[in-house]
What we know:
This protein is of the alpha+beta class.
Amino acid sequence: MSDGPIELYQPRDYTNLGVWSTGALQFKVYGLVAEAKNVSAEMQSMAKEFIEAQVLERVTSMGESNGLGFIIIHPGDLGISISAHWWVQGSVLCQHNYRKLYGRNESMDTITRPVVACIWELALINAEQEAWRRTMMGAAPDQAAHLEARPSFNAT
């Protein structure tokens, strides 16, 4: 057990990387970067491969998808995290993560190490649930408004 924080909180910037359509899903995509890191084209390709190889199968086998979600590509201090989130049953948020430490060949086991999200990712997840509630859970759900809704805060 640690007597204090393992790391000090440092601001992280996030960027809007657009909307990806994959299969029957539309994902809002965010980049979230630690200091001196960036979301490279290679990381975006890695995220697309992860979505196509692992996430779409989960969404299909689960059923009840609302066809919308979001992705966070997060090159952090120790490695890269890619978290895919999608909405089902009108109000349930599902998640599947990919995590890999820099310099390692194998990704981390996200089953026996069931990380939800880091503190910076949680801010984006919260903004997305608020956008979902505002745009999709009213009398007239509006997918276009949902896809356009982006956080209005700074991740610092």
